[in-house]
């Protein structure tokens, strides 16, 4: 049976090794020396990260952004599939250098990891009839809106427009039907769901999404804390992508008018405010 | 079990106010529907025993049609379907005036009246035919005979089954949440989705439904005791 002292020594050395390994060198130089940037991405979340059918490779908006960063650093991109549950542990264990996996930048997550500038914004929006003349969130004061029971959408709209009445229905089609029939002035939920409902309507052009977000979900790239040089370089590259128009072009590929989820680009990559 | 019971959500504050709002809406919806359903039921039941074949046929078809269609479908019909038939201005006016409540009340009235009409009809049948014949022979018209002789007795006989229809009506009013009426069940679900306290929210709603139902039952019982001996059947 090992003595307490030797056991203690083993544990101590283990702790020392673990503590030392991620912080032993500057990650930016480390990545350049390795010639490879390991990025955690989603592989089943189109159009952000998914497996393309014809060549089985992982593609998407997140992957294009990651690839642009790797290219600017002058290294190869290595994609590592992650899920929402595994992405932060994988980063903390050092298996990946960067997370580009539809991750919303939140204050809770800031406790654990560092975020780059916001590189994509999605969130809750408002769908109205084009004929209603409503173009601003404020015009919905005192009006009735439909939403779906139990969703955060309902809570968010009450916070954004306190005087609006929210009618909660059991499902999205009922809430949309109430809008179609004019029983409510607007419908609110996630942008992608609204878009799908709008596009399936007999006359999609009769409806429009307000540009303002009720609540926004800014996506940021995740990095380990303390790698300030690396983070500064990633942010510098992102800003450069924005300036050169490359970021907008990437957006156009995945969310442009000809894509499956045509969105309007209402953000610019310029800061990490949330 | 690692569910943590926390009945604090039901203490005075926002959530309790929602629950009380829901209770008030349930009471209003049930009350309004009960009054109109009773009136409609009496008309339908009287039509059912009228000497005119057409009236009897209309009444019978109505009862069979409504009794054999799910209430939820009727509610969705009144809310999403019937409103398509209004003119634009009428629709706009209605939508601005709590149309959810109106549609739910319509559905409840039409649905409940069909069942109540059947109960009142059994009440009529419990009154010997001879009373009707005697009334007609004494010179009263059909409607007068119904109004002064048969109906008062028939209603008294029908009270117990009508009480149970009233209880059904109160419980059925919870379906109105499907069309966005913020009644008791709707509010319980809202509280659940805000607080994740499902057990507490639904327990509170259950207790409130139980209390309303017990009050209605007690009132019916009281009536039945007092009315005893006033039926000449």
Helix and strand sequence of chain B: HHHHHHHHH
**Average pLDDT value of chain B?**
89
Assembly context of the chains: heterodimer
Helicity range of the residues of chain A?
Answer: 25-40%
Distance between the termini of chain A: 55 Å
- Approximately how much beta-strand content do the residues of chain A carry? 15-25%
Tell me which protein chains meet in the greatest interface and how many residues each side has: A-B, 17 and 18 residues
Q: Structural class, judged by helices and strands of chain B? A: mainly alpha
- Compute the average pLDDT of chain A: 87
Radius of gyration of chain A using CA atoms only: 23 Å
Question: Using DSSP, what is the number of strands of chain B?
Answer: 0
Q: In terms of structural class, how would the helical and strand content of chain A be classed?
A: alpha/beta
Task: Write the element-wise H/E pattern of chain A from the N-terminal end onward.
Answer: HHEEEEHEHEHEEHEHEHEEHH
Largest sheet of chain B: none
Fraction of residues in H or I helices of chain B: over 70%
Quickly count the helices of chain B: 9
Biggest beta sheet summary of chain A = 6 strands, mixed
Please state the overall shape of chain A, judged from the principal axes of the Cα atoms. elongated
Q: Report how far apart the termini of chain B are.
A: 59 Å
Number of helices of chain A: 10
Q: Low-confidence parts of chain B lasting 5 or more residues at pLDDT below 50?
A: none
